[in-house]
Amino acid sequence: MEVEQIEIFECLRRFVPFKSLPEEVLAEASRQVEIAYYKAGSQILEFGDTISDLCFVRSGAVEIYRRNGDLYNRLSEGGLFAYQSLLMRQKVRFPVKAIEDSLIYFLPESVFRPIFDEHEEFADFFEVGDQSRLRQAVSKRDDANVLLTSRITTLISREPVLISCMATVQQAAQLMTDEGVSCLLILQPEASDPSESEGIFDYRQAMVSASDGSEHKVCGIITDRDLRTRVVAQGLPFDTSVDEIMSQRLVMINSDEYIFEAMLTMLRTNVHHLPVLKKGRPVGVIALSDLVRYESRNSLFVVSSIFRQQTVEELAALQTDVQASFVRMVNEDANSRMVGSAMAVIGRSFKQRLLELGEEQFGPPPIPYCFLALGSMARGEQLIVTDQDNAIILDDSFNPEKHDEYFAKLAKFVSDGLAACGYSYCTGEVMATNRRWRQPKSVWEQYFVDWIDNPTPESLLHSNIFFDLDGVWGRTEWADQLQGLISRRARRSQRFLACMARNALNRTPPLGFFKTFVMEQDGQHKNAINLKRRGTAPLADLIRVHALAVGSRAQNSFDRLDDVVEAKILPPDRGPDLRDAMEFISMVRIRHQALNIESKQAPDNNIKPENLSHFERRNLKEAFQILSDAQKFLKFRYQPNRAN
Amino acid sequence: MLHLIPDQNRRKKVSTEWPERFQQLAEQAQHPLLKDFYSEGCVAPDTALDQVPFVAMDFETTGLNPQKNGIVSIGLVPFTLQRIYCGQSRHWILDPGKPLRAESVVIHGITHSDIDEAPDLSKVLPQLLQALKGRIVVVHHRGIEQPFLNAALKARLGEGLMFPVVDTMELEARLHRHHPLSWIARLIGRKPVSIRLADSRTRYNLPFYTPHHALTDALASAELLQAQVADRFKASDPISLIWH
């Protein structure tokens, strides 16, 4: 009768990489396991020991040290160690000690080797570095939901229906009815020689080749709704030419964009039909209804309902809808970027609607202004628990005596309104209600010039947040101009970058992690880790410094990282590592908040490692390690006297 | 009831004399298997614990009485203080030769159909003794394995089997059962510390293993002994300190 080590088998199969093995292979391996018990404090592997087994922590916890005595890693149940030495056939390089009473399973090399050779997924675990393992975890999650990570191509069900700009509206209506479509693209013959622009595709321009070889330009779009509102309601004759009533403003999108981008484009532009281009040729049109069918539509609906509310109270009542849409996106495996930007768009919409309501109440503004979003909303990385960070740029004709009362009232109205909608007041007073942050454009420019040209770590300590800015309402181009000023100026000031870098090191990852995860030691969140303070915030801080150094104008951390990687200032692979770390920590944080909401608790950023799966703990630890390494690099790269 | 050992031998049965006893028994034993078993000898009483080859052994039986009940399965796991060798472990399901009672089926989960094809103990005896010889047997509660094996062999070969055992339950009792519970403790309903296998393991941070599978239980006792020795003996302590 076959000897079955049931307990060993059942334990191993719970853990990566064993769970990827066929049952019979794992059962055979389980039969060959050797076991030893180590009392807390006893040495498991000494430096220079010959290693002949793969070591697996069955219970308890162990610490792995570098030769100089520095702690290298801590492992608990399911942790594997000594495999590097085993694979390289070297002696033990990192000594291992039991820090709790521990039971260790040893898989002899003679058993491990054949499995390693024959089972690729199992082998991958050992061959890839820690960082790549994290990447695999992230990318596996990405794969999990096809819809949210699908390209727009997958939504296109048919070719676009086209009509000449010379056609009448009746012909257009007839064609739409025959084809069963809700919109038409309007074509205009193109005079110029098409070969000139060969291979150059303008986003804003779509070309169509007719069967006779002539080139036509897409010059507009008409929809069902246009026929209703612009023809019938206006009482125009049926022989009106389509180019008289078509929308000439074409908002188009590339077919290889993500569906999510289409959704955001619709949100931003309030357009419900997007022609889809592939290499400059229209290949289809996607309508809001297509997205609704495929997408978690809640965030779209929340946004549109925000703009329908008439009072602050009605807006505040939408909070539960916002939370529901957040949870829904998480449950549909949206990645952190999708969640972050959807929540930012919602937050932005609240601000916009409140400003509209404010202007209705207090009358039109006496001088032009721009309302700014700062921090996570500007970065498109907003989650459910968030402060309101905002400011106002006023026209330079600002006269405090004449105008300030209006803007103080408006700022207070918006700020109180946001607080009612769940965006708590900024404890650092970074709000437009604070007179310091309600200033004319020239003053704002001077603020930034001062920060950048005469920096001290102290003066920059609280101004980090202003380097993530986005215009929400009014003269939003002023926000773009400030961004331009920052990107031109910051990269030249080594002292400024050094100060920003110094501040970016203020918050360190909670390393030592798990068992040694450094937890909050007192207060309400004892034995928890604040994933924002210890994870995403320091990551965003350090990415911002690099982005400023390369003159990037992007606000979102992932976009900034793209610019930074392109500028090649990071060691190879560091960019993707940071991206994975950001994504992973953000997702743990996002899922934690979604769970909070689902269990009717107030969402927060404090996670307890014991509530995470072993897998999450390990990946989180790796992500924090990447952050820690990146901080070291930041310190080294931005020294006050170093020329880059 | 268990007068399997002649009186004069029993008086001599002092644990420190196990090697001499094995010599005597090797001469006295009739059956070649037993002769072979005893001839392998027994480690000296002053052998350091970390030099002793052990084998953890667990039986599932049809009941608790060695005279009336039979052995349904045997699990063996050889080990030392340094390593437990699952690769060399053995597990047999046996025909108990006695009726399988519903109550015991519930405990060990071995059913009539499992034992239909199962061999009699005598068939696996050569392998069993081969696996035991030269090693010190470790059990959790010595009232079962040795008496059952003794009785089974007596019935089949006409002579019993003697060997020293280390009892992890008794080691646990030494720690937690120095004194009977005081009347006050009993009065206030305090329960004695459990020295059952699973409960004992928990005290050493050993993982929970589902009980009543002979092989798993043998493994569980092997781990427990490693933990007990690590906890309160020295590797250089003599085996005589813990065997019976």
Give descriptors for this structure.
A: alpha+beta, Jelly Rolls, CBS-domain, 3 domains, four-stranded antiparallel β-sheet, 21 strands, 46% helix, 15% strand, B: alpha/beta, Nucleotidyltransferase, domain 5, five-stranded mixed β-sheet, 11 helices, 6 strands, disordered N terminus
Assess the beta-strand content of chain A as a share of residues. 15-25%
Please name the CATH architecture of chain B: 2-Layer Sandwich
Spatial ordering of strands, largest sheet of chain A: 1-8-3-6
Largest sheet of chain B: 5 strands, mixed
Oligomer description: heterodimer
Radius of gyration of chain A: 29 Å
Shape of chain A: globular
Helical proportion of chain B, percent range:
40-55%
Give the helix tally of chain B: 11
Which whole number gives the mean pLDDT of chain A? 84
The CA-CA distance between the termini of chain A, in Å, is 70 Å
Radius of gyration of chain B: 18 Å
Q: Which structural class should the secondary elements of chain B be placed in?
A: alpha/beta
Notes on the structure:
- Chain B: GO terms for molecular function: 3'-5' exonuclease activity; nucleic acid binding.
- Chain B: This is DNA polymerase III subunit epsilon.
- Chain B: Residues 53-234 form the Exonuclease domain.
- Chain B: One of its GO terms (cellular component) is cytosol.
- Chain B: Keywords: Exonuclease, Hydrolase, Nuclease.
- Chain A: Residues 17-116 form the Cyclic nucleotide-binding domain.
- The complex is a heterodimer of chains A (644) and B (244).
- Chain A is of the alpha+beta class and 644 residues long.
- Chain A has three domains: 6-127, Jelly Rolls (Sandwich); 153-193 and 201-295, CBS-domain, CATH 3.10.580; 300-637, no CATH class.
- Chain A is built from 25 helices and 21 strands.
- In chain A, the strands form six sheets. Chain A has a four-stranded antiparallel beta sheet. Chain A has a four-stranded antiparallel beta sheet with strand order 2-7-4-5, with no helix packed on it. A four-stranded mixed beta sheet of chain A has the order 9-10-12-11.
- In chain A, β13 (253-254), α10 (259-269) and β14 (273-278) form a beta-alpha-beta unit.
- In chain A, α18 (441-453) packs parallel to α20 (476-490), α21 (494-504) runs antiparallel to α22 (531-549) and α23 runs antiparallel to α24.
- Mean pLDDT of chain A is 84; it is low at 140-147 and 194-203.
- Chain B has one domain: Nucleotidyltransferase, domain 5, CATH 3.30.420.10.
- Chain B has a five-stranded mixed beta sheet with strand order 4-2-1-5-6.
- Chain B has eleven helices and six strands.
- The longest helix of chain B has 19 residues, at 214-232.
- Mean pLDDT of chain B is 85; it is low at 1-15.
- In chain B, α2 packs antiparallel against α3 and α10 (197-203) packs parallel to α11.
- Chain B starts with 6 loop residues before the first helix and ends in a 12-residue tail after the last helix.
- With 244 residues, chain B is α/β, with parallel strands linked by helices.
- Classes of the chains: A alpha+beta (644), B alpha/beta (244).
- At the A-B interface, α1, β1 and β8 of A face β3, β4 and α11 of B.
